Structures are given as C-alpha cells and as structure tokens.
Amino acid sequence: MTEPVFPGAVPGAETVPEDLLAAFERYEAAIIADDVAVLDETFAPGPGTLRGDTAGLLVGHDAISAFRGTRGGVAPRSIERIEHREVGTDAALLVSVSRYAGGGRGLQTQLWQRIDGAWRITAAHVSPRPQPLDRTVWRTVGDPLWQGAWEGALAGLTVAVKDLFAIKGYRIGAGNPAFLDSARPETTTAPAVSDLLRGGASVRGIARTDEFAYSIAGDNVHYGTPPNGALPGALPGGSSSGPATAVATGQADIGLATDTAGSVRVPASYQGLWGLRTTHRLVPRQGLLPLAQSFDTVGWLTRDGDTLQRVVDWCLSYDGPSSAASEGAQPDREPGGESGRGRWGESGTDLPWRFVVPDEALAAAEPATRDAVESLLALLAAAPDAPAVSRAPIGDLDAYLVPFRTVQAAEAWRNNGQWVREHPDAVGPAVAERLAAAAAVTAEDEASARALLAPLRERVRDLVQSQVLLLPTVPGAAPARGQSGEGIAAVRVTTLRMTTPAAVAGLPALSVPLLTVPSVLGPAPVGLCLISREGTDIALVRLARRLAATVSASGVTP
After folding, report:
1. What is the CATH number of domain 138-554?
2. Above 60 in pLDDT, residue 332?
3. I need a labelling partner for 296 at 20 to 30 A (CA). Which of 69, 117, 144, 284 fits?
4. In terms of Cα–Cα distance, which of 247, 308, 323 is closest to 537?
5. Which CATH code is given to the segment(s) 13-127?
C-alpha cells in the first residue's frame, strides 16, 4: 500500500496557508501517481517557469511538460518536514524533506505564486536521494575498478569501458543479462584497454551498451535508459550510451567505445561531447566483441578537445612499419611514442584548413540544424583566418545506407545468430526484430551489397584527399525519451543516412559540439562532424580544436 503524502502531523505544515498546503499535497499525490495532467496544471504556464535537478535545468512549461511525459512517476515517498516562507504578495517558498519508502531522503525547493486565484509552481529544484550506482549507466564500477600506471601521459584520467571489451577476470555482457550469464571470465585484457592503462588512466568501470551494440538510441529494455547529461528527458544516444553518459555527467573522463554505424558519434552529438571514430582497423580490435567487422572500429568520447588530444597522442603515436597503415594491417607496437613518431596517426602532419560540405548531408538535416550550420559557416567566413569552404555532392545517402545495412546485418547474424537461436526469448523486441531480418540475408544479398559499396568507398576517399568533409553529425537534437517505437525507428533511419558514409569509407570521423538547436526540451547540442583521410586521426583532432577555437573566439554560438 502506498504511504500517504502526509503521514500524520508534519512539522512545519501548520505554518503553511490552508489553500497552499492543499495545492502542495495535490502536487505530491500527482507526482507519486504520475498524473501528468495534474502536474502540468500545477506548474505555471509560460516560458519563464523553471525546474532543475541533478540532471540539469528545464526552462518553460512546454519543456517541463515534455520531460514529465517521458520520465514516469517517482518512487513512493512521504513528506516528513516543510519549511514555509512568504516572499511577497501571493508568493511563497516551500522547502520540503521527503522520505522514500525504499530508504533515503530527498529535498524539494519550490517557489509558489497565486495566479488567477490558484497556486502554481513557478520555479522548482529537486535534490533526489543519493544514488551510489546508477545501474542504467554502469554494469560494475570501482574507485577505480582497475588502476593504471601511476605515471604517464594520461595519469589522473578515468575511463568508462563499453561492455564489449575484454578486461581480465570480468565477463563481457554486451547489454544483455542472459549473455552475461552465459559468458566466461576473460583471461586477457583488450589492447585498447591496456593502452589506456599503460598511459596512466584508470578504469572507473564497465559501462552499459545497447544490446549487442545494434542500436543508436541508447535505450536498453533490460537495464533501463541512461540519462542524457546535456538535455534532461532526452535519449542519450547509443550504442555507446553508458560511456557517453558517464563522461557527460562527470563520472569518467574518457569513454572507450566502438563505432560501427555511428555509436560514438551519435551519443557525442546528443550529449555535447567530443567523439572520435578512428580509422578502420587503426586501433587493435582483439578482445572486442564484434557486431560487423567490416565497419567496427574503436573510438573515444571526452568532454573537451584537449583531453581527446591527450588520448590520441598517446594511443596512436608509436613506432611502426610505415607500410603497415597503407595495407590496413595492425603491427605489434609499444604505445605512447612521442608526438610525431610513427605512421599510424600521422601526428607530424597537419590537415589543410579547407573544408567541403556535402550537399546531400546538409539537406538531410532538420531545418534548425541546417540553419545552425549555415550560421557557423558565415561565422567562419568572417573570421580573420577564414578557412576555405566549398560545397560538393557526395551522392544519394540511401545508396550508402541500404547496402551498408545488408552487410552489417549479415555479419551481425554470423556473430550472434547461434547464441540468439539458443536464447530465443532473451533479446529485447527492437534488437530481436533487427536480428530476425539479419537472419534472412542471403549470401547473394551480401555479395551484391558489397559490390555496391566498393565505388562509394572510393568516392568518399577521393573527396577527402585534399580537404576535410564537414557536415552535421546527426539530423537534429536528441529525441525525447518515451517516443513511440515507430518514432525512434524513423529517427534511426534518418540518422544512419548521415553516419554511414564515413563507416563505408573506413575513415576517421570526429563529432565536435559546435552547434545548438531548439528542441521541446530546451536548447540542445548537435555535433559538427569532420571526416578526413585514412590515418590522419591525430591531425583531425588538432584541426577540430583549431576550428572550435575559431568559433569560440567569435563569441557567437551557432
């Protein structure tokens, strides 16, 4: 049975005017019952109403209402203390302490005003009960979970490792509890993890992923959806949702992730992060549970460009045969060479201060995103050190997407099909549907799709020989949580149309948080994606930092 909102005499309640107390109790009952209609009515209408919590600030009744519609109710709680202060005519401050039935206390601070004869909340701040571990973000976590070297280029940084990488003594869970139960503890640690540890970074924990990394939304039916660290109430983006949220919320400095069709770039865009998809096969993939080997690559997420530069300088600068990179092979090497050493990251070179905007990618973006890109291009044109910017066609985006999805599906089924057959009821509906479609891909379908992708790969590579592609990372702001399955599926398709060209070409692609667009949940980040030629990953980060500095110097947010 749900506890009453006021379980007996509540200290301080006697000081609250009777009609205000009744409005407050109605609000508390509605929030427990998740009565969105009453909650909408309780908050004052208009663009000036505020609601904040540890996830961020919502401004305006519409943004608050959209958040309410996707959050669901709160855990059962009762009020155990109220403090009331009059702050003006028909205005009062209420500070209340809540006790949760499941343990723990929270604090609510609300500014109430009498509007048209009824009390309404015009500003609220919620301090929820402390959460020692957000299981939507982390599978397991420590302080640290695995200590890195005490000295090194990455000393003091912490890493959230996507639950696809091997860590000695731990099992890979791939976002599915049945898969985790059936896995064996790993006997070695993936080189992508070891490199970071040797550089001085420590593993903070193993972070959640969408099931088998076969999604870009960031939701997980088994463990829940991680919060969006930049836009409260929005999806976090996937499949690297856990590492992205851990970085965006300050729980880790680096997210070690993977990108097949956008799984680094999409959450980076949704949460205002720097996210690098590295050149295909540049970073060792041993110890990585694959989705589709033709496109899988390792990447990193950080909150700023300087940290990402530290990561790529360490992980991609090393001595190695100069011929290996051109052949796509991965030589044995010791990580962490000085900047400028080694062929792999081309750390000693600079990319041209010259960009090309693909017409089709800009047309595929939402109107607000296109406007933000055009504003940024105008800003760059007016800069003292203006880069050269041109427009060029890249081709029909569906021509990339359709064969890409066929090859990806064929490989995903080869990697996961046997396990899925043995555990038919263990996979969530959305991913199960994708895997069922993947099972139907024939060898002829796959061969035909690969033939279609070959000239497209060369087309993109030709475009970046002497310039860098510049395009929106995704069509627009992160979708609100709680959208219908059809709505999320539509966003998935429009997003993949923009992210697959880089994957098809196997090129480095970096999402930088340089755009802001309006959304129903408030101002939202959208990434600007830079794509450069093979092996120029280090130089690409350096170029992106220069671009960000140029935008910052203007004092204008596109």
Report:
1. 3.90.1300.10
2. no
3. 144
4. 308
5. 3.10.450.50
